[in-house]
Amino acid sequence: MDYIDFDQSGRTIKKRLFKYYPLRDYHIEAFFNDQLFFAKPFSFNDAFDTSDKLIEPFNGFREAIKWDDKKSGLLNTHGIVSFIEDDDAKNGRMWSFYAGNFNGFVLQFDSSALSKKEYYPIHLIPVKYLHAPLNLDDFTLRLRINECEFSIQDVVKNVGFDRLLLDRLFHCIHLEKDSNIWEEENEWRMILGDVTPQHVSIKEHKNGYLLKMTGNSIQALFIGYRVSLKDRQTLLSIAYSKGIECFLATPKIINNQWDIDIVPLYL
Asked: What Cα–Cα distance (Å) separates residue 57 from each residue in 35, 78, 133?
């Protein structure tokens, strides 16, 4: 039987992996401490992204699983960290939307380091861009994620005594996005759900969770040109203590084209 493949089996990262950050103290602290910040869904800027709005219209499903504030709360206790697959850190849309319009910074990550077994059951998974949201009232609908295939009917049958399939359904909901708006972002995500890894440290934050990274996961730092000299020096000091290359990103017209100039930065 056909299923919607959220694993997107066989798909690999062919370019580079970037994370765009606004200039907030806890992001700088996480960089210093080699931590990944997983945001709770309520903080996302897209009203549909991972929210109850992807569940509320489906009355048959909600009635079958006895949807209530407690189950809604489970969805909102998950943590999500998003990355962009791209050729370089010259994505003006990302700088504007997610890095404070160049008053922020970008980290380039080693995708293989983020796929280590220490993080399982957290996986680095590509976002699934769909033309329509998942129809949860179609109980025959089959999904696949984290090498597990199941139907909406399976979720309904098991929800009373086993939350694992509901958790996996929530993972799929965290990964579904409107292709008409977001597909060009080429986003990958790591999701922290009910089942957490045993071999890494996870700390709770008021807006999410902090996961301790293992090894050398960060490859480069890009600082927006609007970042103050004081904050720039702080970021540079952290990067140099870790042996990470640093660059300054400045929007500029180059060869009569809108572009972003990337130049090395030194302490």
From this structure: 37, 21, 11
| Degrees, nearest 5: CA angle 154-159-162 | 100
Q: Are 47 and 53 in contact (CB under 8 A)?
A: yes
Tell me whether residue 70 is exposed, middle or buried, using C-beta atoms within 10 angstroms of its C-beta: 0 to 12, 13 to 18, 19 or more: exposed
Could you give phi then psi for residue 96, rounded to 5 degrees? -75, -45
192 closest CA partner among 112, 117, 107, 123? 123
**Residue pLDDT, tens place only, 207-228:** 899 999 988 899 999 999 999 9
The answer to whether the CB of 158 falls within 8 A of the CB of 141 is no
Cβ atoms of 20 and 223 closer than 8 Å = no
- What is the model's pTM? 0.92
Tens of pLDDT, residue by residue over 170-193, are: 999 999 999 988 888 889 999 998
57-77 pLDDT, tens digit each: 999 999 999 988 888 888 888
